[in-house]
Amino acid sequence: MKKFLLILVLSLLFSGNAYAGVNEPGVTSIKGQCAGAFKHYHKKHIEKSLKLIKEKKTNFVFYASCDSGSYSYAHNKGKDLEKLHKKTYKKCMKNSKKYTGGKECYLYAVNEEIVWVFDKAKASAALETKIAETKMLTEKNAKMDKKPGRFFEDQPDVTDDYQIHFNYLLAQDSEDRELDINGKMEKIILMMNKWMEISTSKNKKGDKVPRKYKLDYRSDGKLDITFIRMDKNFKQLHKWANNDITPFLYKKKGQTNNKKMYFNFADINSVDGGEAGVGFGSIFLRNKSVRTDKRKAAIALHELLHTQGMGTNCIPGIKNNHLNNRDIRTMLNSVDPNSPRIGKIYAHDIDMCPQFMDSVYLTPTREDAYDPYKIFCLFELGKYKHPKYIKVINKLKEAGRYNWKTRFGPSCSTRNMEKDSQGYYLLGIEGNILKKIDY
Fold it and tell me: Distance between CA atoms of 77 and 62, rounded to whole angstroms?
């Protein structure tokens, strides 16, 4: 009982104030990019006002928030400290919504002094509070989420072939619209795959064979859809929600099969209607651009292209994984069910450059098909040693670390982001990939 009261009091202390972070220094440990950025910007901005600060003619405050390497901050100067704190905290929280998913801002520095200092006892108390709150909510959700026909794990496979597995995913505090069990998800996914057959059969440079994705089915013939409830509330998720979703699915839900692409119908909002890399992808059903079933199908088809490594920069006209010329509408992002269009990313005659028609995830599968995970994650290029690929890999090796701007296609979703500054590491793979390749 005493422990419960302590947790309750701590909870009120940490969440009861409208300005929870005003005058409240951070007590957690700051590491990686956040640590370097905070020190750099504090030093940079305070130098401009150092003389006035020392003469006590002005004050300077700096607030910041950090989340998985992403950070936001705000600073201001003025004489009235009380107003200064509130104004700067408010500005920091506005920036946090943009860059760190609304993560709480705390006081980093006042004038020259850095007041954000790791306090093991306070950090432990805050963590204990968070764990207690999460446990209560998890138990409540577990009872509510248990419904007939719902599966909480990937069911036994009927084949060991490559396949797309779908999740119906919610944040910890999201409304359950039961899309996994009321037939709506399955209807959209099957519509999407029908469009694939239409578009592939009409491609001018292809072999005119209708192709569709290999989907993950249960033994009863139904699509295998897993229900996922995240361990974070919506506002706690990263601005780019997949930054939290993917490691959660991999580390805590065991979705680690490299012969599967895991794709989420995420019943939350995010920056875009969809986001995907090789291995994992999502459409965000609460985004304003994802309103009709046709839009859901079109956006899912487009994002699934990214899970296949498309578009890749050895194809002319590709910039930032997309066609940016007159072919921009030929990446399966049409909502016309009679003519979903897929252009030169599907079939082309560019030497040493993969074409989507040859993906192992399509059926009928062509001979010598490519595995997106091997090319875009492991850099095992095989016959696809295009000069642009080699150039990117050499740049990464020279830098000795991962850089999201240095790539030849969609990023590998199973990248271990915690080790980005040390090299190129993947979840579930031992060692630095950059030290294993020799081109």
Answer: 9
3-state secondary structure of 78: strand
Position of tokens 């997309």?
Answer: 322
**Cα–Cα dist 320/324, whole Å:** 9
46 token code pair: 């305070």
Do 268 and 234 meet the contact criterion of CB atoms below 8 Å apart? yes
Residue with tokens 């590998």: 412
Domain definitions of the chain by residue range? 2-121, 163-364
CATH topology of domain 163-364: Collagenase (Catalytic Domain) (3.40.390)
Which helix (H) or strand (E) element contains residue 84?
A: helix 81-99
Contact criterion met (CB below 8 Å) for 174 and 267? yes
CA distance 146 to 149: 9
Query: pLDDT by residue (tens digit) across 82-111?
Result: 999 999 999 999 998 888 877 889 999 999
The pTM score is: 0.77
CB 293 within 8 A of CB 188: yes
Question: CA-CA distance, 344 to 125, in Å (whole number)?
Answer: 56
CA atoms within 13 A on the CB side of 64: 27
In tens, the pLDDT along 121-164 reads 766 776 676 667 676 777 778 789 999 999 999 999 999 999 99
Structure tokens given for 406 = 């240095």
Among 89, 44, 34, 35, which Cα is nearest to 62's? Answer: 89
